[in-house]
Hints:
Blueprint: H1 3-16, H2 19-26, H3 30-44, E1 49-51, E2 56-58, H4 60-79, E3 83-90, H5 91-108, E4 112-119, H6 127-130, E5 135-138, E6 147-161, H7 163-169, E7 183-186, E8 195-198, E9 204-207, E10 213-214, H8 217-225, E11 230-234, H9 235-244, E12 248-265, H10 272-292
Parallel strand pairs: 3-4, 3-5, 7-10, 7-11
Antiparallel strand pairs: 1-2, 5-12, 6-11, 6-12, 8-9
Helix pairs in contact: 1-2, 1-3, 1-4, 2-3, 5-10
Amino acid sequence: MDRFQTIESFVRVAHAGSFTKAARQLGLSRALISRRIIELEARLGVRLLNRSTRSVSLTAEGRALSKASAEREIARSAQTPLGGIRVLAPKSFGVTCLTDAIVAFSETQPQIRVSLSLGDFSFRPADFVEEGFDLAIRIADIRDSTVLARRITTLNSILCASPGFIARAGPPQSLSDLTSYSCLSHLGSDEHDRIWTFKGQRGGSIRVDGLFDSNSALSLRKAALAGLGIALLPHEYIAADLAAGRLTRLLPQYEVRRPVIALYPRSPHIPQKVRLLVSYLVHWFRHAASSIT
């Protein structure tokens, strides 16, 4: 069994205090983590962990190995981008944009294992650290001193609808007209989710309502394609639909620009592998933008 993976499993268990949490953080089964620790103890000839039905604690030998392993990992990660990175990202952005960038990164850095977790949810900026993630992607401005944030790209959301819907309802002529149309809004816990705000000289805010809402931009796209109403969606998500005529842009003078931010724990020792991935994402999206727009 790979020695690095075995030590990594032990360190995760030591820090998490739980085989189950360590397995979830590494994306592995609890049985595999347990087997790795047993084999490590057998190879060293010492017991590293005190196990009970409720908790896991380190023996004196385990504490010594954990400290030594952590020190070696810090020194090594500062110089060499090895090991794994766990990334947390919104599902719509992850499926539409981020996965392609991560795959391209993995092709250039095969020594780094990337685990990408996607979901439609909201979280406090620092929550991802407690869950064992190294990096989180958030589509919003972040002001939190406990994390470092770097913008990797910007999403431009535009108003759109299917040709069939426009033929039935007619195209809106102004922002205020949207109040009389079925609009497909993002579903969340914020009471302002149904208020679309456009900034700039032609900006303004309008409260919308409609037949369908969702917490997923991909679901809102499908609803727009089905002719259920007008949607406000990132251009990057619907570029192919616009080019094929499946969706039509409305009121082109209005758009919403939202930053896509990479978050990682604030620390004097940022692992080289994390720095490398974040820099790669900035570069990839900068050069991919011309092909998306």
